[in-house]
Design goal:
The structure is a homodimer of 489-residue chains. Helices cover 42% and strands 17% of the residues of chain A. With 489 residues, chain A is an alpha/beta fold. Chain A has three domains: 181 residues, 3-Layer(aba) Sandwich (Rossmann fold), CATH 3.40.50.720; 102 residues, N-(1-d-carboxylethyl)-l-norvaline Dehydrogenase, domain 2 (Orthogonal Bundle); 143 residues, Hotdog Thioesterase (Thiol Ester Dehydrase, Chain A), CATH 3.10.129.10. In chain A, the strands form two sheets. Chain A has an eight-stranded mixed β-sheet with strand order 3-2-1-4-5-6-7-8, with helices on both faces. In chain A, strands 9, 10, 11, 12, 13 and 14 form a six-stranded antiparallel β-sheet that branches. In chain A, helix 1 crosses helix 2. The radius of gyration of chain A is 30 Å and the shape is globular. At the A-B interface, helix 2, helix 7, helix 8, helix 9 and helix 10 of A face helix 2, helix 7, helix 8, helix 9 and helix 10 of B. Strand 11 of chain A pairs antiparallel with strand 11 of chain B, so a sheet runs across the interface.
């Protein structure tokens, strides 16, 4: 499966796009020879590279290849010397790009592919004046190049088809998604769509229908949230509940005549056109069969990602959760028996690649139950800021039997012991309908002053609740395995 | 902070949107009286509600309020009886909506807000013929209503401003993001933008520039991936590296004259317009100061979410990682000393809400190191399918000192003992520049047959590598704390 990447590439231009390419190549182990006569070009590329290293460390735990070597060179000829691929990312001026590509094509070996990162110019215009134009093409990426997957590959009239195939493989090998554009057209595909949105956004601001912030919010919090999961056409199809694209066009077609955007010219909805779009949409739906539940799971995954960054819709979710927490009464149980967490249904995404729920989820369940207990005894934001909080010192997890996707899991939490500084907890993970526990988690928490991080004593009503609960739990049988050491066998 | 939500709402229409509203209200603890004369309406709402329950269980671990009661009623009057809010979600036909709203307004108490979910019709047109039109407005949500945050609030000419304020609070209290639209306009804000994209997409298919699948892919894998994080205007601003919107318009303005989309009419770039957009964009950038690193962190979070679903760009990342794994040589070290994992820099998102790296990340580091060890002894997909794999039986984590964001962490892994069925590992978490370890993780793994889940013996070259490494590690000093039980103090 692993593709042989070029050993070295020549980059012409080290701006935002060229620098992004440099990062993508270098972190995939490819040497880069960079030509950019602008002062400070190397600094800019180094800065982008530092961002990319940081992003990749967060993105993946797979070991990356040894980073390629970055060399700033003094001429186009020097940049393309001995390389296996040339990528041009100069400013968007036809004459400048032509000159760079022509010079590069004369200096590079005749079979070295030469790609332009242009975001709008047709490849045929760029091939004029080049040596061996059959290896010249457009490979248009998106900012930041080291993270955005799409690269649009556009042939000019002279481009050899197998050059496209070769390039698609190389970009795919570097973690990108190559899309071969069928016809030569200004702006290719993605930018034509992006441009349509940009124009309408400008009209909205111009006509005082919305401010810049409101336009952006209207997108981020609505259809923009679906965009990483499905494009505009599948979205419209799904809005009709999978009744097919003919039905979708019947329903949404009439709106195309309404003044629902500034620019309203649309293709005529002839039978030929309707047949074509319906057929292509069916093919897509077959290849990419997304159910409502799968759509929801993807949206949830995106919302959770955004919540971890407290950004846009993620911030909305976090505030909602805070409201729920604030609104929920937290009765301290006169219950006898261990504290019971709310029951959770195991989502299918908890399954690891080996088809099992990994121990990290057992820990997540224990953490959830610990937080539930702390809530119950009154450790809230107010207590946190005035008196302190509990941190986990030790955790001992035992995976006793498999938890399956769809299992309804409840955690029973018992205080093994508690003093002014510590709580020793035992969590028993139970699955609805099963007698034997699925797992066990033991934790020791320590009470600390949040500012200094030093241990200190629990105070006030939290102390009272804790001790009362500890006394109740001391009457219960001690959970099996508590305080046991780890051993084989 | 927690808003009092209505006790009960009346819903007119139980289709995709009405059903989505029902789910959002019910799961936030609000009773729903539903009027929909279509056969099967209740079933459809129940199905959407089941999807929503499932999605919320995955989205949040916060305890939801007790679910509201859903009642199907036989008339509009019955639906609005005793409720505190009416939400109409009938098909997009003016006369039908007018009739529903007029009837509801006569039957409901005079101060009950009446909202229409229309996606395009202006509120003033809907107010005609209603009693107390000052409480009639548009509240336009997006599908699926129980997950998508945006709701556009649009007043008609009679709507009282405080009705908008009240409604914004209620929707916010249910986890939504209300956006008050400044002027009455067909299609409001989000749908005008979505419509622009839809028209351009139809042209692309019509003109055979791309298929349905290619149009959608071009969006999902490129600018669509940025959309949950930033809208179109902030995106263009950032493409100019934060030089401001005037600069952005100088750079991208000329392209507006290029035929980069089918529909090319744009506002005149007068000084007045440029001043306005620049000023609004500055205000946005100040309120919503996103750095390149923050953008990258958000993109990474989205990519990780998509990878967990193996969808679109997430699938691209997963394939790239597989390629890296396949391509990487896995030398079994003639090193003496414990096995060293690749060094990881602690990302800032590892910090929990209390400003500490939680124990779940200690476990993540240990799991990473365990997988590294298994890789080294040759447990790969091939071995997995033919001979078996290792599962974790027990884990004991000790959090010895704080790990800080930005710390460079390496895990030293030592085999404490190994037999044909077990491996007992000790992981020591070290921070670059610190002598004392930050944490310790002990794990017992068991070798199992993946199909049956039963324990079995390690085989072949994996066994050889394991035993060789175990012999080398047996010569090392036994790590402190290994095999210790948990205890307070």
């Amino acid at each position: 499966m692993s593709v042989r990447l070029p050993r070295a590439v020549g980059l012409l231009g080290g701006g935002v796009i060229g620098g992004g390419w440099a990062a993508r190549f270098l972190l995939n182990g490819v040497d880069v020879r960079l030509y950019d006569p602008a002062p400070g070009a190397l600094d800019q590329v180094q800065r982008i590279l530092a961002n990319a290293r940081r992003a990749y460390r967060r993105l993946t735990q797979v070991t990356l290849p040894t980073e390629g070597a970055l060399n700033l060179v003094q001429s186009i000829e020097d940049a393309v010397f001995g390389v296996e691929l040339v990528q041009e990312s100069a400013p968007e001026r036809l004459e400048l790009k032509r000159q760079l590509l022509a010079t590069a094509s004369r200096a590079a070996a005749s079979d070295v592919p030469i790609c332009s990162s242009t975001s709008s110019i047709r490849a045929s215009l760029l091939q004029e004046g080049t040596d061996h134009p059959e290896r010249v093409l457009v490979a248009h990426p998106f900012n930041p190049v080291y993270l955005m997957p799409l690269v649009e590959l556009c042939a000019g009239q002279h481009t050899a088809p197998d050059t496209l195939v070769r390039m698609a493989e190389i970009y795919r090998g570097m973690g990108m998604h190559p899309l071969v554009v069928r016809k030569e057209v200004d702006g290719f595909i993605a930018n034509r769509l992006q441009e349509a949105l940009w124009r309408e956004a400008l009209w909205l601001v111009n006509d005082d229908l919305a401010t810049v912030q409101e336009v952006d919010d209207a997108v981020c919090y609505s259809f923009g949230l679906r965009r990483p999961i499905m494009g505009p056409l599948l979205t419209y199809r799904m809005a009709c509940g999978g009744a097919g694209m003919r039905k979708t066009m019947e329903r949404f077609g009439p709106y195309l005549k309404w003044p629902l955007s500034k620019l309203t010219d649309v293709p005529e909805l002839t039978d030929t056109f309707l047949d074509k779009i319906a057929e292509q949409s069916d093919a897509q739906a077959q290849a990419d069969n997304i159910t409502e539940q799968e759509r929801d799971d993807c949206l949830v995954a995106l919302l959770q990602g955004l919540r971890s960054r407290r950004r846009t819709a993620g911030e909305t979710v976090a505030r909602w959760e805070q409201g729920l927490r604030d609104g929920a009464a937290q009765p301290i149980g006169s219950d006898v028996g261990p504290l019971r967490s709310p029951t959770l249904e195991t989502p299918s995404e908890w399954l690891g690649t080996n088809g099992r729920v990994p121990e990290s989820r057992y820990l997540e369940l224990c953490t959830f139950a610990t937080n539930n207990l702390l809530s119950c005894i009154g450790v809230d934001r107010d207590y946190h800021s005035k008196c302190g909080s509990y941190y986990t010192l030790e955790t001992h997890l035992s995976d006793l039997r498999e938890i399956r996707a769809g299992d309804r899991v409840q955690v029973l939490t018992q205080i093994v012991s508690a003093d002014d500084e510590h709580i020793h907890l035992a969590h028993v993970l139970t699955v609805e309908g099963q007698v034997d526990p699925a797992g066990m988690g033991e934790q020791v928490l320590i009470h600390v002053d949040v500012g200094s991080g030093r241990r200190c004593c629990v105070q006030g009503s939290v102390r009272e609740c804790l001790m009362k609960l500890a006394r109740v739990h001391a009457e219960l049988p001690r959970p099996k395995r508590a305080s046991a050491g780890i051993a084989v066998g």
